Amino acid sequence: MSQQPTINWRRIAWISSIVMVLFYIGISFFFDYGSDLYNHYMPFAKGCLDCGYVPYYARWFLAPLALLPKSLLAWPIWNIIMFAVLFWLIYTLDVNPLIVASFAVIGQFWLGQIDIYLCIGIYLILKHENPLVNGIGLCFLAIKPQIMALAMLYLLIGQPLPVLAKMLVAPIILALLSFAVFGIDWPVRWLTNTESLPVHMWRYSALDTWRFGLPFIWIPLLFKQRDLRIVLSIAVMALASPFFGIYTYMVLVLFYPKWWTIPLSYAWVLFIPLAGSTAMRFAWILPLAIIIHICYTNWPQSWWAQRQQRLAN
């Protein structure tokens, strides 16, 4: 009896993901969107420091956006670059390529967002043991400190002094250069400008939850593993920062690649009959589920569980 060929689900997932991304890129040539790219990040990269609502030093990271053409081709070109980097990360991290179907990735594509930079930063932190490289990763995360501040802080806490010193080399150089170029008072000017950040439907979820999520920012400290701390820190910030857009959930589905995160990224759709056009405010279901799942499945490795075990012994 001849052996039945097995189905290569991995290959099917890759083919499906590539087809989806080609579809995304294809329609971007015919639609006039990418509002965040055109209205915020491209002007910021070209010198309008108050346009991007990100720290001034982020201009050095976003400098390639200044090279994009002043036409409707900028959005498709940025999508090609963004998805190329995302596919490289998916391949390198060996995660499910179908995460490109998650609502967060679609949000990144549709708005022309830049959270692929955050993904690069986390990759440099999680996949490299060299603390100098980790420090460069911190600089990438600092592009959006309103989202990544907790992950950055908890990454530094508990590090041996020699390692900590090396990790801080790149961030300190970045900070000193920023003061030299933009002035010693640029953080004040930046923070003052962020007060005018318009309320966006993609932030409805965080605006609803941040008061309730703020008391739980200590949760990542329960675990010593670097990957768990970072993912938990980002998931907690999704609930505790009023500036967290649900398109940034792309970071969560990439670095916590459980199959259920993809359909759960659309859980808010179930609330459309109840909330109508504001149903996105229920998107907090995804980061909350990730927090619960990490804590439940890894509880024996938590600081509290190990302490209880030591007391029992």
UniProtKB/TrEMBL annotation:
Its main location: membrane. Pfam families: GT87 (PF09594). InterPro entries: GT87. GO terms for molecular function: hexosyltransferase activity. It is a multi-pass membrane protein. Keywords: Cell membrane, Membrane, Transferase, Transmembrane, Transmembrane helix. It comes from the Bacteria. This is DUF2029 domain-containing protein. One of its GO terms (cellular component) is plasma membrane. It is found in: Cell membrane. Belongs to the glycosyltransferase 87 family. The chain crosses the membrane at residues 12-31, 72-91, 98-126, 132-156, 163-184, 204-223, 230-256, 268-296.
